Amino acid sequence: GWASEGLRSSGKNRRVCHAAARLEMGSLWEEFNRLGTEMIVTKAGRRMFPTFQVKLSGLDPLADYVLLMDFIPLDDKRYRWGRSYGDAGAGEWGAGPGSAQPLLAPPRYAFHSSSWLAAGRADPAAPGRVHFHPDSPAKGAQWMRQIVSFDKLKLTNNLLDDNGHIILNSMHRYQPRFHVVFVDPRRDSERFAHQNFKSFSFPETQFMAVTAYQNHRITQLKIASNPFAKGFRDGDPEP
Amino acid sequence: GWASEGLRSSGKNRRVCHAAARLEMGSLWEEFNRLGTEMIVTKAGRRMFPTFQVKLSGLDPLADYVLLMDFIPLDDKRYRWGRSYGDAGAGEWGAGPGSAQPLLAPPRYAFHSSSWLAAGRADPAAPGRVHFHPDSPAKGAQWMRQIVSFDKLKLTNNLLDDNGHIILNSMHRYQPRFHVVFVDPRRDSERFAHQNFKSFSFPETQFMAVTAYQNHRITQLKIASNPFAKGFRDGDPEP
DNA sequence: CCCTTTTCACCTAGGTGGTAAGAT
DNA sequence: ATCTTACCACCTAGGTGAAAAGGG
């Protein structure tokens, strides 16, 4: 998967304008996305699985960069998991108007007859935080040397969190974003800030924040693919 | 414990000349040192215990620094652990002339009648490596914010090690050294390199490199004080 | 004989979803 | 009813010295 980079291509600093990011574990992300990815949020903070990892290219090997992530609401709805009341329609995945955004459309999958249903307007947005990759800042050469992994990033639903974790509303949908920021050594570099970064969004990484898994197929795929959940695997081992 | 800083006090850059380092866990280091500290070296690399940790002060909060460690031979001897052959003298701890260096003198302790005995000239010196603290480079403010811990540093006796570990000769004595290096942003800053660092040696951290512990009292103190060795503790717990 | 290597049980430290109880 | 929390057994990952085996 290659990320959409937004519409503006004008006026970027040459240290970031050629930057490119390839999502790692793309097929796993797509497998989750087809079912409707769910990510657990807890008071103490929970890692994402799959982990957000990218392979970078096109950076200036000798320049300094900061790498970071943030999470933007995909819509202004809150959701619930369950059976729709009447017949088809009325807000469930892919039914209403406005669902004609191919890459952002919710998954069509439903477990037995349960599915994600819109359930009113979004709650007030949580404090918008960012997560800096802990190796930041580092040279372009260092970032491009190997896969960059955001495995220290944790998601929480605690609005008062003071561990620096990403705060999300449960039962709301989010799109992870990844940003490459050139550390401009010039004085008053703030005035060029808008030119010095490049952002990437991978649609297959969007997810629903939950406090407990709703879709059993998501649970089973997490158990099957996350090494830390091996204790819940049933039968035949497949490497 | 405060470190000796070498004899030269002239011509240091103002970004390092006020730097100070206090050794953490000083009483534990001294307890080991009284018995004659031993550190295990293995082919794969072994951590030090106690871990080398310092609290820094006197740095420029806004300047960049690199922190690193190296290990210098304390003498040109190789040692063995055992009973001396004849009567007192002939090379054991504190017996010969030249042992009049108060801070570098070997410990007087002997287990039953065993002790460390000089056993000839040192083996050829191992490749002199340094260990950069993995957070390097970082601002002075960041380094001074909390204790700086070198818990990722590993010691090996494998001369061909390619994991970047510190290579030492077993049965030889070493003095850990700690260096604060100001990252000079000036062009051709190499020419000022000798002014841009400050070094610290804590005599209580000197040790004998071994492949297996020789002094049983060292073994018992390691077991009593290293959390990872809790499985070997016998009786009463003392916090 | 002295030193080194390998393997092992036993820890620390922390990431999983299940489960039952709690909250609204 | 629906969502959240706290606790738990069960993992991964890796740091301990003991003991036995290996090597010069």
Automatic annotation (TrEMBL), chains A, B:
Pfam families: T-box (PF00907)
Gene Ontology cellular component annotations, sorted alphabetically: chromatin; nucleus
Transmembrane segments: none
Compartment annotation: Nucleus
T-box domain ranges (all copies): 23-234
InterPro entries the record matches: p53-like_TF_DNA-bd_sf (IPR008967), T-box_DNA-bd (IPR046360), T-box_sf (IPR036960), TF_T-box (IPR001699), TF_T-box_CS (IPR018186)
Keywords: DNA-binding, Nucleus, Transcription, Transcription regulation
Molecular function terms from GO: DNA-binding transcription factor activity, RNA polymerase II-specific; RNA polymerase II cis-regulatory region sequence-specific DNA binding
Name recorded for this polypeptide: TBX10 factor
Organism this protein belongs to: Ramphastos sulfuratus
